[in-house]
Design a protein that fits this description.
about 20% strand, elongated, alpha+beta, about 100 residues, 3-stranded antiparallel β-sheet, two-stranded antiparallel sheet, 5 helices
Length: about 100
């Protein structure tokens, strides 16, 4: 399939993308993602690996459009707060009350 990413034409195939992404360790996903095989990758990581371009050179929409047309699952994962207080409701409540968490 012919697609244009960052004003450059690419001839992409599903098997070619699978082969290119084989052995690539996924970065933590926050925001737009592409599921390739059993792994979920950030869309910008997929675009950078497949096109060999800098991530600043293309938009997420270009990658998502191309990967969707190839048949990969794409979507957006909402940002999750990385603070420990957000992960543990008891700790968060203790922080709000100003008391140390119960052991």
């Amino acid at each position: 399939m012919r697609c244009v990413i960052a004003r450059f034409p690419f001839e992409l195939t599903k098997s070619g993308v699978l082969e290119t992404m084989k052995g690539v360790v996924p970065e933590p996903v926050v925001g737009p993602f592409v599921t390739i095989g059993r792994r979920t990758y950030p869309a910008k990581q997929v675009g950078a690996v497949v096109t060999r371009q800098d991530r600043r050179d293309f938009g997420v929409d270009e990658v998502l459009r191309a990967m969707t047309r190839l048949g990969f699952t794409c979507g957006t994962r909402p940002a999750v707060s990385s603070s420990p207080a957000a992960a543990d409701p008891v700790r968060r409540a203790s922080d709000l009350l100003g008391a140390p968490p119960a052991a």
